[in-house]
Amino acid sequence: MGAGVLVEASVASLLDWALKRARELGADEAEVSVALSSSRQVKSEGTHLKALSRRSIDAWVRVSKGKRFAVTTVTSLERKPLEEAIEAAVTLASKAEEDPYWEGLPDPEPPLHSWVGYDQGVASAPTSWLLELARDLIAEAQRRPSIRVSATFVSAGESEYHVANTRGVSASDRGTHFSYGVELKAVGAGEGVGFSSVSSRGLHVDIYGVLERATALALDSMRGEKLGTVVKGNVLFRAEPFASLVDALLVPALNALSVLEGFSPLRDKVGQRVLGQLTVVDDGTMVGGLETSLFDAEGVARRRKVLFDRGVLKGFLHNTYTARRMRCESTGNAARVRGAVAIARTNLVIEGGEDSEETLASSSAVVVDGYLLSVHTVNPITGNFSVVASNPYLVKNGELKPLKPVTVSGNIYEVAGGLRPARRVKNTHTGVYTPDVLLSGLTVSG
Amino acid sequence: MMFEDLASPVLRKAGELGVSFAEVRFEDTVREIITYVNGKITALGVSRTRGAGVRVLYGGSIGFASTSDLSRDGLVKALEDAVSIARALGEGGKRVSEPPVKEGRFQVPTVRKHPSTSGLEEKLDLVKRAYSAAREGGAASITTRYGAYYGIVEVYTTDGIRVSAERLVTGISASVVLRENGKTGDGFETYGFSRGLEAFTGEHSPERAAEKALQMAKDSLRARRPPAGELTVITRPELTGVFAHESFGHLTEGDGIFAGTSPLTGRLGEQIASEAVTIVDAGVDPRGGYYYPVDDEGTPAERVVLVERGVLKGYLHSRESAALLNMKPTGNGRAQSFHHDILVRMRNTFFEAGDWSEEEIIRDTRFGLLLDKPAGGQVSEDGTFTFNARIGYIVENGELKEPVRDTVLAGNILEMLKYVDAAAKNVEISTSPFGGCGKWGQMVHVGDGGPTLRVTRLIVGGEK
Q: What does the alpha-carbon distance between residue A334 and residue A282 come to, in Å, rounded to a whole number?
């Protein structure tokens, strides 16, 4: 890429042509979007380096005929394949069934903020520099004799997104992403693993921070002892594992389509206190946010919305379709998935509380750090979770003693009353910004 | 061969640029999805993916570049990108191993109703029938799905590979929620095959999927969380598959072996599991799974015995990993799409049959859990494997008692597989177009399976 301005005019005219063509072929309404991205990555399998370069084009067509709709995509901007995709979408929509709730595509609106997460430094970072960073990560990690490098990666990419529809939406955005990370294994008396990574929109480099965390986790886990019993009590989740639990368990329950169709345990809980004292905000406008953009996938402006205010459920994440069904405003959370416009979070911010991390750790039986294995298997329909913590610690006389991996189980809504967030909010580099959070009444075994 | 004319000039140009090896991998595939939620279509789409990935070896270093521009200029630009970034790496120690076979066309046999030639009405009929059956069964919320992935991957290299591979996986699923007296029960069933739509009849009909999902949800309504701690666990075939995949499968992948980070490094020939354990990774098996006769490097898929009667026998390899370890490629070099580089991945991974029946195993168990319906799993390089069962029963004195739900199971590969003490004869191997296996940001379809299996010690993540 690197030529956003140059291609913008031609993309705009292509979208214009595609919308007209869709109408000519019989669509009542049409939406066409184009995502262009390029990335460079240096990665290592063990210490063996490999360099990758990707240029991708994704064109997306959504059409409706009456209350029927369909979606097709192609990996090309050429008119012939795009026209085939439009034809296919119109044909599919003609044969589809009516959705009585379909009220059409979104109307145009201006962006509600002006921050564009585009960093020329990321866009122009040469592969040779990415390589240098990867080599530094490997060399520094290997300074400790008990550490082996499982994998490293350094990646820089830029993307641009254009969406237009027959109601007059015409939105564009662009951004850059930079990330690096390392997975280490410690081998000595036992074996242990540690992973750490950083993701940002700009060029922020702190390889020592990443190495320090991954190395400490790997060495602690190597020295870890088996819990050897079953414990029921307070568990302090460090920010990273808590973020992954929230993403897998809570975010799907906040999806308005899940709410409307009866798959969310939060479906009749608006106005009720269901999450202890936690305040949770989805903020697609956050300056510097990993997931910040001007518009969502439908061209609706990104917003800031409070989902839980001191534990009280205030609302859900919406695209235009669910918002119209629930007679409210879209929250600008539309996302493209296969065959549909779905709903996805942007930056999820969990506010800090009153306690220090040390106070919460000393009130806990177990502290969970690193990552949660099998976190994708939790049950968002009920709130049940049963996961394995890669890097747990037993709290003994105020000290943290490393453990081998343990299982941690409970139900997020049943233990919500005991949720206690620490004061300091951390960037987990996943788009979730959260403090460490204490959960009470969990069962730990290992 | 669809892309041969495009490949030839790129490979000629690669020679001029001084590479020791070049490969162009073309893809032209389609994904179809229909999601039907409570009687409404919420997703209806067809996505076509068309492009090429170019891998080069320059001075012992690997460069990979991808493009959706299949013009001659677009492909040459991708080649030049790959060469340029490989040069930036400087002198390296990479090679690619010699392929056992260089030419071939690999097609999926006997497909009667290929999704590409079947109408939307027929596909909609599948999701609507499953929905109707679930609704008649009293479900409060219902999602049914149809999905398909099909098309062609072609591989051309400077060392003479000319391989065309057809890919096909189709599937249907039903997920239901039941509500009763303030309680919520959920259940699901998925059927997936490398076959046409004719597969979804009889025992694999949409109605049967809905019935199975309803039965699971009914059990789930009555279920409690299982007791926590180390317990005897009996896994049913679908769950046994995830056990095979997460326990041995990942840690036999050649990239973890050459990096020296897999706990199975250097242990070939060692007894690392009980004699009841035989695990295989195969591209094709008559009992089902994903039909994958040749990998994304053009290497025919070898049937690899990973563990035979408890002894570690083999690793999985791509051309790159095999060369680093002076071994043979096994047909396990796979990529999510043309945009992705080759990683070492499983195909169909399964425990082989024993001589018990499932009933005998249950009757022979004094106390434990019989578990089923995996929700996925994961493994870490210290040998910790985990997988999750959505539903099951407590087994007491040889009989099934009350149901249990949402259970994570964990263990260490070098410890827990010694406790597998019984395998039944009932091997089943399954696949799905809706998900697969994720590794380093790449998702590929896989199959897995096995028989009903008993492990006398696994860590159960229940509640106290």
A: 13
In A, minimum Cα distance to B253 occurs at A45
Token pair for A370:
């690193």
Packing angle between helix B4-16 and helix B72-89, nearest 10 degrees?
40
d(CA B378, CA B384): 9
CB contact under 8 A, B46 and A57: no
Give this complex's ipTM: 0.93
Mean pLDDT of A363-368: 98
For CA atoms B13, B19, B23, B26, the dihedral sign is: negative
Amino acid at B456: T
State the total domains in chain A. 2
Cβ pair A260, A319 in contact under 8 A = no
Residue A102 lies in a domain: yes
| Chain B, window 208-237: residues with a beta carbon less than 8 angstroms from a chain A beta carbon | 225, 228-230
* CB-CB neighbors (< 8 A) of B38 in chain A: 261-262
Q: Which residues in A166-240 belong to E strands, given as ranges?
A: 170-187, 191-200, 230-237
Cβ of residue B333 closer than 8 Å to a chain A Cβ: no
Boundary of a domain, candidates A142, A175, A210: A210
Which of A55, A92, A138 is most worth mutating to test chain B (most B CB atoms within 10 A of its CB)? A55
Chain A residues with beta carbon closer than 8 angstroms to that of B377: 374, 377
Determine contact: B16 vs chain A, CB below 8 A.
no
- The whole-number pLDDT of residue A7 equals 60
CA distance A307 to A251: 10
Q: Which residue of B has its CA nearest to A128?
A: B88
- 370-429 in chain B: CB under 8 A from chain A: 374-384, 386-388, 390, 405-408, 410, 412
The alpha carbon of residue A91 is apart from the nearest alpha carbon of chain B, in Å, by 10
Q: Which of A210, A233, A249 is the last residue of a domain?
A: A210
Mean pLDDT of A421-443: 98
Q: Chain A partners of B333 at a C-beta cutoff of 8 Å?
A: none
Asked if B140's CB is within 8 angstroms of A75's CB, the reply is: no
Query: Regarding predicted confidence, which is higher, A296 or A9?
Result: A296
Residues A317 and A197 in one domain: no
Same domain, A179 and A299: no
What is the average pLDDT score of chain A?
95
Same domain as A296, residue A160: no
> What's the DSSP call for residue B4?
H
The answer to whether residue A215 sits within a structural domain is no
Environment class of residue A170 by beta-carbon count within 10 Å: exposed (0-12), middle (13-18) or buried (19+)? Answer: middle
Put simply, whether A177 touches B (Cβ < 8 Å) is no
Domain of A45 in residue numbering reads as 4-210
Contact A386 B408 (CB under 8 A): yes
Query: What are the φ/ψ torsions at residue B159 (nearest 5 degrees)?
Result: -100, 20
* Contact between residue B93 and residue B123 where contact means Cβ atoms under 8 Å apart: no
Whether A193 and A248 map to the same domain: the answer is no
Does residue A19 lie in a domain region?
yes
Tell whether A374 lies on the interface with B, counting CB pairs under 8 A: yes
Indicate whether A277 and A334 sit together in one domain. yes
Digitized pLDDT (tens) for each residue of chain B, 464 residues in all = 899 999 999 999 999 999 999 999 999 999 999 999 999 999 999 999 999 999 999 999 999 999 999 999 999 999 999 999 999 999 999 999 998 899 999 999 989 999 999 999 999 999 999 999 999 999 999 999 999 999 999 999 999 999 999 999 999 999 999 999 999 999 999 999 999 999 999 999 999 999 999 999 999 999 999 999 999 999 999 999 999 999 889 999 999 999 999 999 999 999 999 999 999 999 999 999 999 999 999 999 999 999 999 999 999 999 999 999 999 999 999 999 999 999 999 999 999 999 999 999 999 999 999 999 999 899 998 899 999 999 999 999 999 999 999 999 999 988 889 999 999 999 999 999 998 999 999 999 999 999 999 999 999 998 87
Flag if A49 and B89 touch (Cβ within 8 Å).
Answer: yes
Domains of chain B, earliest start first:
4-222 (3.30.2290.10), 229-461 (no CATH)
Where are the strands (E) in A8-102, listed by range?
A: 29-45, 48-65, 68-74
Tokens of A414: 């049943």
Interface of B with A in 29-48 (CB under 8 A): 31, 33-35, 37-38, 40-48
